[in-house]
Design brief:
The chain is α+β, with helices and mostly antiparallel strands. The chain has 5 domains: about 1-155, no CATH class; about 165-355, von Willebrand factor, type A domain (Rossmann fold, 3-Layer(aba) Sandwich); about 360-445, Jelly Rolls, CATH 2.60.120.380; about 450-550, Sandwich (Immunoglobulin-like), CATH 2.60.40; about 560-675 and about 680-690, Immunoglobulin-like, CATH 2.60.40.10. Strand 10 (about 395) and strand 11 (about 405) form a beta hairpin. Helix 5 (about 180-190) packs across helix 10 (about 340-350) and helix 7 (about 245-255) packs parallel to helix 8.
């Protein structure tokens, strides 16, 4: 996944060569094969050489590059600046566009960028530039394919690269449950190997955790090897009830592919909840869902200070507060007991296929729900789960007013699975008669998806929307929601995004500021409670489409930013990473920073900094020194900056947390001025993603 992301960034630069330079205007119709090779790209126009003429109308825009530049084949590109202070050398071309301040400098007016068909030169050359950029990208992909072969190249493209991970608590308190857990885990693995398997993972992972140790981590491509390893597990040791749950989960996530599923089994709270933000950061970035099976009794008290003189961060894992890591990633938390293995495996198989979510909520007791069914939905899945023994039923009223009283097709004391066949499009109602805390997810195997993503907005010569990689701040207003729908039978005519809390209550309903035929953009002010995003669109054919992002988003009042990027480190040097921590809470907070580094450039698994005392609405800036003895065999790693503070400085209260990831590169050779006979080469190897 990271390799594919970095390759995409590199291809953006490659494609910009054709969109921003005059390669196309010079009459070139094929890619420049010297790009990325360290060889000079052609004849460059010097800094003092004028390249464009003044042009303030479309009449001269096509030929605003000076004739002698074209005649002699000089390469040039457009200058770009966002502020009036932006300057360019006299007579140079501008990038162009309303956001480019250099267009007021000689040469004035139209620029030479071809990003869009409506850009300054795009109206003349966009499609030629796009075609050559497309061919150049194909060439680079073909080179990778030839160099690394079918298997590795297929993994690079994300073909059949999901993982199935099992994390099992093996402490002594699990002795009454360990055989049941092994049986259930094996059935989950077996469900991915038959002819009817809905998921065929490329990797199988086992991550046992104990106390005070965890591991060893097993990674294999052979399902039977994983089954044998699970069968050999025994319950032993453990000095106290809380366990190293997040260490086991974090180990599994460190080797998972994107879009993977992780199943955890435990009977106790986590004592290492200080790793929660790091785990959530990894799971969110890789779109990994965590499914938690809990064999213990409800744990009273979310976090506490141990009496041994050490401070552990304790978190209940029984789903009792609806804010567990499984809910945050779009998974579930469920109880287990003897005899559940086969039924639970069938329940899990339905989740492995990742059907489109219509609605997901956590309920304190019985309730009424309303939801939309569109023409693409013929079967409705209704999943009810809990860590408490379930007692009750569900009833539905379909869009025609018919009362339905379904019976479960699979069940245990802790889950019920219903399927409604031949669903009729329209507005439906569901009444849950289940008492006690439980979760309900409505889903369907449908070809129509509508995905809403919380995004950062980057304003340059074009507005870009990038998925937010950390937790949003309470009341933050500079983010946006990007909704994209696929496989729609007709265009969108209207839509909205409801922010709903964990119980399904609507916090606010947001309406688009910008519309397209397959999606829209919505402004947002982040609420002060956890929320999910429920998207509803109306199509030109009258269909109402309802889809929900299953992940639970937790706003925060603290934030960390890493500045002076990108970070590039050479061998045997030290790099200072500059970070700023912000406190947007209404009170002074003691904020602790911890950095984890699996490649151990910090010479430790985890480095924590003494708490920063930061007053309300203030910030503090500091630096982290990172040293590197260059190792050419080192691979991409992850640094995670995690910040946390007790709410109201109370140890027993839930913590306020956030996290940040930043890319770090190694440079193995100093760049030298390129020439046709003596060319230097920068090799930037992705090393750490923080």
């Amino acid at each position: 996944y990271h390799a594919r992301a970095y390759f995409g960034q590199a291809m953006h630069t490659l494609q910009d060569f054709y969109a921003h330079s005059n390669w196309i205007e010079l009459g070139q119709t094929e890619p420049n094969t010297n790009i990325g090779s360290g060889i000079i790209l052609g004849k460059y126009a010097s800094k003092s050489m004028p390249t464009c003429k003044n042009c303030n109308s479309t009449d001269c825009a096509k030929d605003n590059i000076l004739p002698e530049i074209i005649k002699n084949g000089w390469l040039t590109s457009g200058y770009f600046g966002l502020t009036p202070l932006a300057k360019k050398p006299l007579g140079k071309c501008s990038h162009g566009g309303s956001a480019d301040a250099t267009t007021d400098e000689e040469a004035t007016g139209y620029g030479i960028n071809k990003d869009y068909a409506t850009s300054d030169h795009g109206m003349f050359y966009h499609y030629d530039a796009a075609r050559v950029a497309y061919e150049a990208t194909k060439q680079k992909l073909s080179q990778l394919w030839t160099q690394f072969g079918d298997t590795t190249f297929g993994r690079f493209l994300g073909l059949e690269t999901t993982s199935l991970a099992i994390a099992i608590d093996t402490t002594g308190s699990m002795a009454p449950y360990i055989e049941l857990v092994k049986q259930m885990a094996i059935r989950i693995v077996q469900s991915t190997t038959g002819d009817s398997a809905v998921l065929r993972p490329r990797k199988y992972i086992l991550s046992p955790f104990n106390d005070p140790d965890y591991g060893p981590l097993l990674v294999t491509t052979n399902a039977q090897v994983l089954i044998d390893a699970i069968s050999a597990l025994t319950a032993f040791g453990g000095d106290d009830l809380p366990e190293l749950y997040y260490h086991g989960l974090n180990e599994a996530l460190s080797v998972c592919e994107r879009d993977s599923s992780v199943f955890t089994f435990t009977d106790a709270p986590a004592k290492d909840a200080y790793l929660r933000s790091q785990v959530l950061a990894k799971a969110s970035e890789m779109n990994i869902r965590v499914y938690s099976f809990y064999a213990g009794v409800v744990y009273i008290g979310r976090r506490k200070r141990q009496s041994t003189g050490t401070t552990d961060s304790i978190e209940a894992l029984d789903g009792s507060d609806g804010h567990d890591i499984a809910s945050a990633t779009g998974g579930f938390t469920m109880g287990i007991q003897a005899g559940d293995a086969n039924a639970t495996a069938e329940y899990v198989m339905g989740r492995l296929a990742r059907p489109e979510s219509i609605l997901t909520i956590n309920l304190p007791g019985s309730t009424n729900l309303t939801f939309e069914v569109d023409d693409s939905i013929t079967v409705i899945n209704i999943d009810v789960s809990s860590t408490q023994i379930l007692s009750g039923s569900v009833e539905l009223i379909d869009s025609k007013g018919n009362l339905l009283k379904p019976t479960p097709i699979a069940a245990s004391n802790f889950f019920k699975l219903y399927k409604i066949q031949n669903a009729i499009a329209g507005t439906w109602k569901l009444h849950s008669y289940y008492g006690g805390k439980h979760s309900i997810e409505l889903s369907s195997d449908t070809s129509i998806s509508c995905t809403t993503t919380l995004c950062e907005v980057h304003k340059g010569h074009a507005i870009e929307y990038m998925p937010l990689r950390d937790a949003p701040l309470v009341n933050q207003t500079d983010l946006a929601l990007l909704t994209v729908c696929e496989n729609l039978p007709s265009n969108i005519t209207k839509g909205s995004v409801k922010l709903i809390n964990n119980q399904g209550t609507i916090i606010t309903e947001l309406y688009p500021s910008t519309f397209g035929k397959n999606g829209f953009i919505t402004s947002i002010q982040i609420p002060d409670v956890d929320f999910r995003m429920l998207t509803t669109v109306t199509l030109a054919d009258g269909n109402n489409i309802q889809r929900q992002a299953p992940q639970l988003i937790s706003p925060t009042t603290i934030k960390i930013d890493l500045t002076n990027q990108p970070y590039i480190i050479t061998g045997n040097t030290t790099l200072n990473m500059t970070y700023t921590i912000y406190n947007r809470a209404q009170t002074t907070l003691n904020i602790t920073l911890c950095i984890t580094d699996s490649m151990k450039l910090l010479n430790t698994t985890e480095k924590c900094v003494s708490p920063y005392v930061i007053p309300s609405q203030n910030s503090i800036t500091d630096q982290l020194p990172v040293s590197n003895t260059y190792n050419p065999n080192i691979t991409t790693s992850v640094f995670t900056f995690t910040i946390s503070a007790p709410a109201n400085d109370s140890v027993s209260a839930p913590k306020v947390t956030n996290y940040k990831t930043v890319t770090l590169y190694t440079e193995d050779k100093t760049y030298e001025e390129a020439s046709p006979t003596n060319s230097g080469l920068i090799l930037l190897t992705p090393l750490c993603s923080i």
